[in-house]
């Protein structure tokens, strides 16, 4: 163990960490934008649309993320129509390919999580929304989706942490995020143990912070479901008196 090397390498590793966080944030935002309409379509769209979305989700959940990265990074460039399109300046960039692949991957998992959460929304709340004259779209926007997001948060927190770890695969297409930076330093110093232990510690700290933040958000969003102890005691006392 060489603590001096670990400390010396820390600035470069933290710079790579910043790129990992950029990849994670971009992928999660884009993935969520894709997942919400897919989750709704799985429940409301015609059968052919549901079948297409089900195939998409099965493909991205059933194939390795590394293979998906290679298909996007090396595969798309094989088509002349893509190389001649306006998207080529973006698609030829490793960073864009990584974000696109991560977003498509997490969208499949998130859509499944949201679909289950939407189905778990109490039927009484949906019926009340329709009874108030809300259209289907308004009911989703005002009642169903906010409730579903709260229900989905614990499972989505696991997905966020999984995607954090998955960003390490971006190093396979020359992106110098945390793992890629560690690999580069290892090639120069021949000290894999020190570098990868430090990188693992950084991943662990970030995962702990993300988990704590999402649990705090879950706790905050569920405040209205928790009656204060004093209120609960009063309610119990009133019920006892009435009995």
> What is the typical, i.e. mean, pLDDT?
90
For the largest beta-sheet, the strand count, sense and barrel status come to:
none
SSE class: mainly alpha
CATH class annotation: Mainly Alpha
Written as H for each helix and E for each strand, in order along the chain, the element string is HHHHHHHHHHH
Membrane topology: Multi-pass membrane protein
Main location: membrane
Subcellular location: Cell inner membrane; Cell membrane
Keywords: Cell inner membrane, Cell membrane, Membrane, Transmembrane, Transmembrane helix, Transport
Question: What report would you give on this structure?
Answer:
The structure is a single chain. The protein has 243 residues and is mainly alpha-helical. It has a single domain (3-242), classed as MetI-like fold (Orthogonal Bundle). The protein has 11 helices and no strands. The chain has helices spanning 3-44, 47-62, 65-75, 80-83, 88-91, 94-120, 123-131, 136-166, 178-189, 192-221, 229-242. Helix 1 packs antiparallel against helix 2, helix 7 packs antiparallel against helix 8 and helix 9 (178-189) packs antiparallel against helix 10.
